[in-house]
Design a protein that fits this description.
Ribose 5-phosphate Isomerase B, Chain: A
Length: about 150
């Protein structure tokens, strides 16, 4: 799978380590931010990964900052992005199976590296279930287009 990876300065080290792990699993990792640890405002990599996803240059994205919150907020401003913040394997699994999340946001400060890797592995391996969840995605798309989801997606 072609995965876009981005991080701010607080997530740079975790992202470098995750990049190596994802590559060892056979994924093509496209780094869309500097991972040097130099100061970087989180909206910049969030926009880069979100835009690459929207333009179909990548299949999914992973963003890492201090808490994951800022990245999630910023990434979700890009049309077509369904970014989810996950703190454990269950939230990662549900974000994929129920919400068809296409960007995973992670906390470098609150999660250890092994848990970051386990969350990402779970998220990447989990398919979207479809079914009743399709209706909810259509409602999310209606909101994104400025329409009331209660009036029919």
């Amino acid at each position: 799978m072609k995965i876009g990876l981005g991080a701010d300065h607080r997530g740079a080290n975790s992202a470098r380590l995750l990049q190596d792990r994802l590559a060892s699993m056979g994924h093509e990792v496209v780094v869309l931010s500097t991972l040097t640890g130099d100061t970087c405002d989180y909206p910049i990599p969030a926009y880069a990964v979100g835009t690459a996803l929207r333009e179909k240059k990548i299949e999914r994205g992973v963003l890492i900052c201090g808490t994951g919150i800022g990245m999630c907020i910023a990434a979700n401003k890009v049309q077509g992005v369904r970014a989810a913040l996950a703190h454990d394997e269950l939230s990662a699994e549900i974000s994929r199976s129920h919400n068809d999340a296409n960007i995973l946001c992670l906390s470098a400060d609150l999660l250890g590296q092994r848990l970051i890797e386990k969350i990402a592995e779970t998220w990447l391996a989990t398919p979207f279930q479809g079914g009743r969840h399709e209706r909810r995605l259509a409602e999310i798309n209606a909101i994104e287009q400025g329409r009331d989801p209660a009036r029919g997606a």
